Each structure stands twice: as C-alpha cells, then as structure tokens.
Amino acid sequence: MNQRLKAISALVPSGTILADIGTDHGYLPIDLVKRGICPKAYACDVAEGPLSAAKTNIASEHLEGKVFAILSDGFIQVPEDADCAVIAGMGWYTAQAILERAEERLPSFRRIIVQVNGDTDLLRKWISDRRKTIHEECMVNDRGKVYTAVSFSMQEHAPYADREILLGPCLLNERSPLFLDDCQKQAELLSMILSKRPEDETAARLSRRLAIYESVNP
C-alpha cells in the first residue's frame, strides 16, 4: 500500500468491522484483515470495474470469507454490522454527499475516517457545524503530496474554533514537522496570492487564513 493508505489504516480501531466506501482495488480492507486489525471488512464501490479488481485481489489473498466486495452507492448496501467507515481518495463535495445521504446511520459507527483531496477544513467545518467529535487526525506526505485524514464520531462536542477548523485540533496539538512545514508553505502561498489581489472581500478572507497559518510559526 502507498503511504496515504497506510496512514488511514493506522486510524482504524482494532476489532472493528470496516466499510471502505469507494474501495477501488480493495487494498485497505485486505490489509486490515490480513494484519488482524479487522475481523471482517466490506470493500464497497459504486462502479463495477474497481469492484472487479477488488474481487480479484481478495481472491488472490484467499480472504473471500472475511473481505466482501459489495456494489454500493455510498452506504446504501453496507451491512448493518459495519461499525467503522472509511471514505478516502475523493473530493470533499463527493464525500459530503455520501455522508449526508447516510447521516441517520452514522451514529452506529464507532469511527468515520475521511480523507479528501483538498478542502479538509470544509470537512472539519461540517463536523463542527453538527457539534460532533474529532478524535484523531494524521498528515502524510505521499510522493510529494500532503494528505490529511480525519477520524470522527457522532459523539457530541462543542463547535471547534476557526483555527481548529483550518488547521485541525489534533494536528495543532501534535505539531509534527510535516504539519509545521505545511503551515509555512500555505502561509507563503497565501502571501503571494494576496500580493497580487485587490483589497476586496475575498482578500479579507484570505488574510484571516494567512494570519492563522502565520500564528503556527511566529
């Protein structure tokens, strides 16, 4: 598996039954079952092509009785015993649609782990607006691109502050070298953008984001 999937797998609690939504080739559920983290897993995808590849990979590892490939649009066909969900490798708005279609079911999951390709702050805002709990976050550099995964549950929590929504409450506490480096790069990028923009509402919003990033590495 690549570093992105390895980072996501580290957030999956031991003993949970995984539903990997948008599984592609099924690498994540196969790995978690092989290592004994999950006793059973569902590799779910809306497209027949990726699901066929997942079935081939499951069979090659002789895991047909533990990893089940399911054709499912989001959570629709996911069996009721799944108690950990992963939604990874897609844009935020696609992930948001999947979450909102399944919102009544989400409380049955011990953890929901989401990794979106950009706009992680919008994911955190979605969680915060619903007053739910972010338990863990991880940031990883995979082949030169930085990815962030967020693990949350539907347990009640006070709304997060703007700084926590932008940067991540757990990442802020951990302050890893990768996190600090990414904050510096984001600050430099915003500074460059603002130097070329007129003063308007968008510039004011970007300036507020810049101030938050700069506060990490004063």
TrEMBL record:
The UniProt record lists the keyword Protein biosynthesis: no
Keywords: Methyltransferase, Transferase
Gene3D superfamilies: Vaccinia Virus protein VP39 (3.40.50.150)
GO molecular function terms listed in the Swiss-Prot or TrEMBL record: tRNA (adenine(22)-N1)-methyltransferase activity
GO BP, sorted A to Z: methylation
Keyword Lyase appears in the UniProt entry: no
Protein name: SAM-dependent methyltransferase
